[in-house]
Amino acid sequence: xxxxxxxxxxxxxxxxxxxxxxxxxxxxxxxxxxxxxxxxxxxxxxxxxxxxxxxxxxxxxxxxxxxxxxxxxxxxxxxxxxxxxxxxxxxxxxxxxxxxxxxxxxxxxxxxxxxxxxxxxxxxxxxxxxxxxxxxxxxxxxxxxxxxxxxxxxxxxxxxxxxxxxxxxxxxxxxxxxxxxxxxxxxxxxxxxxxxxxxxxxxxxxxxxxxxxxxxxxxxxxxxxxxxxxxxxxxxxxxxxxxxxxxxxxxxxxxxxxxxxxxxxxxxxxxxxxxxxxxxxxxxxxxxxxxxxxxxxxxxxxxxxxxxxxxxxxxxxxxxxxxxxxxxxxxxxxxxxxxxxxxxxxxxxxxxxxxxxxxxxxxxxxxxxxxxxxxxxxxxxxxxxxxxxxxxxxxxxxxxxx
Length: 402
What we know:
The chain has 2 helices and 18 strands. By secondary structure, it is mainly beta. The chain has a domain at 306-402. Strands 1-2-3-4-5-6-7-8-9-10-11-12 form a 12-stranded parallel β-sheet, with no helix packed on it. Strands 13-18-14-17 form a 4-stranded antiparallel β-sheet, with no helix packed on it. A two-stranded antiparallel ribbon has the order 15-16. This is LRRCT domain-containing protein. Residues 346-371 are annotated as: Disordered.
């Protein structure tokens, strides 16, 4: 046992010792007790009532009772990391008995859900590296003073988080949910004071456009190591205070949907540090920094002009017109025509003007040249063509298809 008498805050170190010796410091104004690494199976009883900081990490504690904490009315900081505490081993509202508790560390235990009945004045809660798969809506009820919540390395999915889970955390400044199984950011995030949000190492494949819309105070956002291929335009529009955005190790597909990201990145102020926007697909741009990507390398649907298809037809085929919304031209061999009006099947077809009203082209002049090439065509969207006579013994069929 070691005492530090020079300070009004006495530190009692008890490692591999009998915890009953702690009773000798009851007359101290404020006490910090270290009982880590003692192979304790349960929360120790009969501790000094004036203990402020209690270190019980690296033991084998499995249960937490209300009676054990009810006697510690001045306890402000409790370290229970690396024990064997399970959800069923925590008596309901046990931690609420420690009415002055501000910091509660439960890292590396066996919890499957967030304990119910947390202290109302709690400011920091660490539940990382557990087996938490469920957060009930009442888990953080009345815990309005909480500022930092760490849930990294659990089994959380979107289905396991109740819709109203975070609604009472009105003073939360930091939320960390890294290394879980989220497919989208959790809904209804506390918006008033949140400045740091960690969502890296999940399975997110999309981010709804409203996910961050109310986080006006958010300064740091990490969505690295997910399954994101693209982002909806405007997804970051509400982040007026953002200073650092980390997106590395996603599956960014640099197709037409990435164009808005390029323009957005180029418009950002120098005060905003963005890391990790790098193309992964297609192969021709893999490894390129998205901000520096040449727009000419991005292929959009319909950005390439359709190629004409040529088919040589027998000369005996009749004249053909098409009702498809594409340009169709048919070339037929010469006819023995009179020198006056052409046959009805060679009259000009209706075309559409720019005002989308149907209009009819005036008939061609009388056909005087019996050997000239006759063309019938259907024009869509005001397309114009020019043709020249071809060989009188061949017929060509031109199609521009969708």
